[in-house]
Protein: FAD-dependent oxidoreductase domain-containing protein 1
Amino acid sequence: MAAFALNVALNPNPNGVVPHRRRAYSAGTIGISAPSKTSKTNLPSSSPSSTNYGQTHATRFRPVPVSGSGRVNESDNPTFDVVIVGAGIIGLTIARQFLLGSNLSVAVVDAAVPCAGATGAGQGYIWRVHKNPGSEKWELATRSHELWEDMAESIRNQGMDPLLELGWKKTGSMLVGRTAEECSVLRKKVEQLVDAGLGAEFLSCDDLLAEEPALKLGKESGAAFMPDDCQLDARRAVVFIEKANRYFAAEGRYAEFFYEPVTGLLRSESSGEVEAVQTSKNTLHSKKAVIIAAGSWSGSLMHDLLKDSEIELDLPVKPRKGHLLVLENFKSFQLNHGLMEMGYVNHESAALSSTTDSGTNYNANSASISMTATMDMSGRLVFGSSRQLVGFDTEIDESIINRIWDRASEFFPVLKEVSLADLNKSREVRVGLRPYLPGGKPVIGAVPGLSKTYIAAGHEGEGLSLALGTAEMILNMVLENPQTVNPAPFSL
Structure:
């Protein structure tokens, strides 16, 4: 069948800021770290999914050759049932869902490699204490959490340790208030969570101090607390999921194409159906579905892919920059639970202005800062977080790091006795670009007017916590199965 290409002038950033560390688009957002020589993390060799994070990306993630049953054509133009654009947590879990939930063959393509983006730059929490029962995302969030719990239990049943495989551990989560007014709101939130069937409780000032002795906030403080909430290590989870996906390569059902930016879609001249994804190196034919899960780059990528076609698509995904400060061997205090301040749920939107002459401009001075604090499985203290709309800029901003430290010091007064400058040798800074959509919820669904093409993007800081539910939803859409979660709120 004859096919024609949608013309593409692939511009990863229509706003004119081109990240020098990265080609074209990426799956998720760019993760940049500045670790000291002493802060490199090596997974223990005893773990079946162990990987040396000191290796280069090129060494760590090798393209998987397709072999075996012949389900996938090994010619210059291989054919798959499903082609997924994006190898972040969303793309990889969608691939996993198709591999486990169907007999379809799957290809994952990315301009870089897994965990090079937002997935690898985040804190790894999948908490529910800050979420709102009854909201449009609630059903998806709770389903995703249930699926993560199922995965951890499955790992235990196979005689493995979820801590080693996923970095999975029960930390409990707290949403902390400092004033009587904030605590009044938190009490109502606890009531909502309990009514939704979750084991939430309100902690008074004394109870909070007993749980977190370093958290000294005064007599009016308190917290909403969910003791059963968990967190995981995103990098370990990605390694585990990708390794599981790769088992299907031997059956001819799975292949990876990394360092291959997508440059076009091939459509049938007669029906207009998408028949293939064109990359910088390959033409990947798709028989069943093409799924765009390219994180912050999803909007600009689709704009470029469709700009010379008759299809109009409004997908205003923007990169929302965030910083995290990671401290190794920090002995000033022990953190017992995952924490975030109440203001986190009402993070001020970074200012976004528009002009008729120059298009969209970003205000770099509009960062909002909220205190978040976690202890990862290696015992490192992780402080956040910031949010800015500054285009695709991923440079570390020391003024933001200082503001994160100052904000954390308001909650943990012991930090005022420590100079951040003295911690340079034992710190790491993570920078990521969350895929932000106005309205605060992702887009998950079919692309109108473009048959066999689907979008899963705009999860912002909730990619990890919403990934498994998103993957299930996409699978059910493609296979026309009954949905577990109502997809209507997430449609284009």
